[in-house]
């Protein structure tokens, strides 16, 4: 489990040294999938994700992101 301070620094993960490059890409993907009406997952991001994750892992990441988003939306009425 990550330290509490690591969760606080997600917004500035690009500058954080304790996140691995693959983790930074996963956080960026999360932001784009979560805000897909305004951000989209552009080809450039897709290529960076695939540098660190294979197709199966990519699909699993997107499914997890959407599952968490749906769960939070149902609980807090924001879907």
Automatic annotation (TrEMBL):
SUPFAM superfamilies: AhpD-like (SSF69118). InterPro entries: AhpD-like (IPR029032). It comes from the Bacteria. This is Uncharacterized protein. It comes from Cytobacillus firmus.
């Amino acid at each position: 489990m990550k330290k509490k301070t690591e969760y606080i620094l997600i917004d500035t993960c690009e500058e954080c040294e304790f996140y691995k490059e693959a983790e930074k890409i996963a956080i960026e993907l999360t932001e784009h999938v979560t805000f897909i009406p305004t951000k989209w997952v552009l080809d450039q991001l897709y290529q960076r994700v695939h540098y660190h994750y294979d197709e199966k892992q990519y699909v699993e990441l997107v499914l997890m992101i959407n599952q968490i988003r749906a769960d939070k939306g149902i609980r807090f009425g924001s879907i």
